[in-house]
Amino acid sequence: MKQMDNILLIDGNSILNRAFYATQNSFLKNAEGFATGAIFGFLNIYLKQAEELRPEYAAVAFDVKAPTFRHERYEAYKAGRKGMPDELAAQLPIAKELIDAMGITAIELPGFEADDLLGTYARLASEQGLRCYILTGDRDALQLTGETVHVLLCSTQKGRPQTEEYDTEAVLRKYGVLPQQLIDVKALMGDASDNIPGVPGVGEKTATALIGEYGSLDEVYAHLEEIKKPSLRAKLEENRELAYMSRMLGEIETQAPAPLGLSDLRVRAVRADVLNALLDRLELKSAKKKIAAMGWLSAQPEADGTDAPSLFSLLDEPSAEPAAAGSLLSAKEFSSEVKDFLYIYPNGGDSRHLYFDLSCGDEPALYRCEGAVEPEIQELFERKNLKKVLFDAKPFLLYLLKQGIGFENLACDLTVASYLLDSTRKTEHIEDVCRFLTGKQLPVNVRILKPMREAAEKRLAENGLTELYETVELPLVRVLAELEREGFRVDAAVLKAQGEEIDARIESLSRDIFALAGHEFNINSPKQLAAVLFEELGLKSGKKTKQGYSTNQDVLEAIASEHPIIPLITEYRQNTKLKSTYIDGLTNVIEPATQRVYSCFHQTVTATGRLSSTEPNLQNIPVRTELGKLIRKAFVPTDDRHVLVDADYSQIELRVLAHMSGDSAMQEAFRSDKDIHTITAAQVNGVPPELVTSQMRSRAKAVNFGIVYGISDFGLSRDLGIPVYEAKRYIESYFRQYPGVEEFMGSLVAFAKEHGYARTLMGRRRYLPELNSAKYSVRQFGERVAMNMPIQGTAADIIKIAMIRVSEELRKGGFASRLILQVHDELLIDAEKSEQDEVMALLKRCMQDAYTLDVPLKVDVTAGRSWYECK
């Protein structure tokens, strides 16, 4: 798979409503007088996103015309809202027919709003390693934004629909708070459109300032006495219940019972005959023309997946005159013309569509590959002195690896180059990358690659990124393709047995929960669970009022000691998530023929330079709980002749911090190979190492790693469950012990403010416009990133170098063993038993010698019959 799969979730009511009012003055109707404006507008908005995102999964969520759990808790919720206009209501069922004909699933759920379904499926998509886009006209959805969840906010400007994409940083820049904090801002300021009361007299500016300063609604009320304005303090105190009720009303539910599984949302083949008839009936000629251009109105046979992929014709416009693109040559003629560069264009990122260009002289020499790769072309791929240029090279290399075709001298991958120049921008579409690199909008075909390469090489050199690009990122492309080819064997029988054990435990927990509750109920329903906890059992002063309650994990942790039912619910949730996300999720992606899973590794996704993986997301295999660790028992070597060899960097980020800060005390702790957390605890608490308690060490560990992430006294107090003043004193004591660290952190922020970016030891950059924000909370976020990115990014660079060296050493040494996985600071090899000792030594050497720091890089190497045994 070439990249992280996309899922597009659409707020049907919101988009149709916005489209209806945007086209209201156009009086769009067919000959029968049937209004079509909302459908027309919806199609335009959807088709634009479908064309840009090419989602593998899609769903349209609709509201149900019935009260929701919010109405039951607050009767006045959305009171006063006008009903749906008749003209719009009449278009709704036709819109659903169109949606179905286009292969998209419509979903709705009684008792919940469309927003709740969007939130629930966004969570499920993130857990399954999908990149999620939420298309809506409702700003409330911004609270769902996260690392892999982006909100496409639709608005109308001058009568035309406009879509603005929001990620976490965009929300911060726009609103001055993190996405999840928007819920608490609304709790204070209210929302007249939904009749959410909020705190009377508190507006958006004040609400944002309070949440920006204290972090959450809970903390605002915990520090009420610190609020200087008596009138504001009084308003907050008098309307505490209104604030918490407003938060309940404004928070999108992400744990709603999903009416369908995620796999049910995979985009189906378009029913061309039905779609064609509907468009003709509605007389939507321009929409039909656009849909026809997308190829949706011709028969679309379902792919059976039985044919092996092959290389075939790639021209963007096959009917184009050869003169418009260049002279097409035979393979023999083409190979004889090749000199310095070979430009290879896998059309649309699909390795099966190829276009080759020499770009020598005024008119390029072109070759179109159809069917099997001809010997002359294969020789070009394998020619070491011929520089190859591609856009998104990994899928192409993976294809060649699977066919046993060699490939040498990847000189330029434009996707990787663009990512290195600005890791915070998306690099999916060649049109966008071309505009970013060259400042021009050029016709999309193979000829676009040459000016893009020239611009990329110039800008990389200007930014001091050429060495990182050529020695780390480009060689890594091949390594990742090799990892994707190898896959990782998973024992389905082990997963099945674990699944049965977890099912039995879930059933046992359910019985115990029902016994404590006094009756059966749907534990997965937030509404029913809240009623049991706060109304029936009366937890957390939960007297029976119209006020609702959140049942998220933070709330449950806060009341864990109030009733024995809470730990059981927490364990129940852990088990159900483990079963659905990991046991079932992994089982569904095992390739039957090989009994392996083939994860897709992403090089250009994270802003820090770290790698990520999807389908399955092996980065998220649980490691903190014993139950989660057991899943690793299912990951096994190829057969009985193989063994897994695992190597893990020990505290690499802290070692990078010691090196970069130059702090002598921290460096000495690592050079003497002592436990850094015990040493820190002893020094901060003024006791000998042998008198350090487990609590002291635990706090020291939290501070050591927290410092890397720019932790505040508030953040540390929350993590350790101690008062803010105590956390502040601890951090001050820590910096007295490690003065070089405090000075270094300050210098990182100063550098970022002066230059506009943070950088790693190897020159990787992350731009930080947040540092210039007028909003305090946004600047604070920028400062935390300025402190963290150089450390985390350097650690990421080091393990990338290690991966490249391990792969090269295995290849040069003629080993049958293969590198199969990278997870955070860990590398895993599927080794032949006869090579085990050599491979363990090789792995340790390559990782320890990957980069020279002022402190040693420590690597722990183990072997086992499963991934679990390696830990």
Automatic annotation (TrEMBL):
<dbReference type="InterPro" id="IPR001098">
    <property type="entry name" value="DNA-dir_DNA_pol_A_palm_dom"/>
</dbReference>
<comment type="function">
    <text>In addition to polymerase activity, this DNA polymerase exhibits 5'-3' exonuclease activity.</text>
</comment>
<dbReference type="GO" id="GO:0003887">
    <property type="term" value="F:DNA-directed DNA polymerase activity"/>
</dbReference>
<feature type="domain" description="5'-3' exonuclease">
    <location>
        <begin position="5"/>
        <end position="268"/>
    </location>
</feature>
<dbReference type="InterPro" id="IPR054690">
    <property type="entry name" value="DNA_polI_exonuclease"/>
</dbReference>
<dbReference type="Pfam" id="PF01367">
    <property type="entry name" value="5_3_exonuc"/>
</dbReference>
<dbReference type="InterPro" id="IPR036397">
    <property type="entry name" value="RNaseH_sf"/>
</dbReference>
<comment type="subunit">
    <text>Single-chain monomer with multiple functions.</text>
</comment>
<dbReference type="GO" id="GO:0006261">
    <property type="term" value="P:DNA-templated DNA replication"/>
</dbReference>
<keyword id="KW-0269">Exonuclease</keyword>
<dbReference type="GO" id="GO:0006302">
    <property type="term" value="P:double-strand break repair"/>
</dbReference>
<keyword id="KW-0234">DNA repair</keyword>
<keyword id="KW-0238">DNA-binding</keyword>
<dbReference type="InterPro" id="IPR018320">
    <property type="entry name" value="DNA_polymerase_1"/>
</dbReference>
<dbReference type="InterPro" id="IPR019760">
    <property type="entry name" value="DNA-dir_DNA_pol_A_CS"/>
</dbReference>
<dbReference type="InterPro" id="IPR012337">
    <property type="entry name" value="RNaseH-like_sf"/>
</dbReference>
<dbReference type="GO" id="GO:0003677">
    <property type="term" value="F:DNA binding"/>
</dbReference>
<dbReference type="InterPro" id="IPR036279">
    <property type="entry name" value="5-3_exonuclease_C_sf"/>
</dbReference>
<dbReference type="Pfam" id="PF02739">
    <property type="entry name" value="5_3_exonuc_N"/>
</dbReference>
<keyword id="KW-0239">DNA-directed DNA polymerase</keyword>
<dbReference type="InterPro" id="IPR043502">
    <property type="entry name" value="DNA/RNA_pol_sf"/>
</dbReference>
<protein>
    <recommendedName>
        <fullName>DNA polymerase I</fullName>
        <ecNumber>2.7.7.7</ecNumber>
    </recommendedName>
</protein>
<keyword id="KW-0235">DNA replication</keyword>
<dbReference type="InterPro" id="IPR008918">
    <property type="entry name" value="HhH2"/>
</dbReference>
<keyword id="KW-0808">Transferase</keyword>
<dbReference type="Pfam" id="PF00476">
    <property type="entry name" value="DNA_pol_A"/>
</dbReference>
<comment type="similarity">
    <text>Belongs to the DNA polymerase type-A family.</text>
</comment>
<keyword id="KW-0540">Nuclease</keyword>
<dbReference type="InterPro" id="IPR020046">
    <property type="entry name" value="5-3_exonucl_a-hlix_arch_N"/>
</dbReference>
<dbReference type="InterPro" id="IPR002421">
    <property type="entry name" value="5-3_exonuclease"/>
</dbReference>
<dbReference type="InterPro" id="IPR002298">
    <property type="entry name" value="DNA_polymerase_A"/>
</dbReference>
<feature type="domain" description="DNA-directed DNA polymerase family A palm">
    <location>
        <begin position="628"/>
        <end position="835"/>
    </location>
</feature>
<dbReference type="Pfam" id="PF22619">
    <property type="entry name" value="DNA_polI_exo1"/>
</dbReference>
<dbReference type="GO" id="GO:0008409">
    <property type="term" value="F:5'-3' exonuclease activity"/>
</dbReference>
<keyword id="KW-0548">Nucleotidyltransferase</keyword>
<keyword id="KW-0378">Hydrolase</keyword>
<dbReference type="InterPro" id="IPR020045">
    <property type="entry name" value="DNA_polI_H3TH"/>
</dbReference>
<dbReference type="InterPro" id="IPR029060">
    <property type="entry name" value="PIN-like_dom_sf"/>
</dbReference>
<keyword id="KW-0227">DNA damage</keyword>
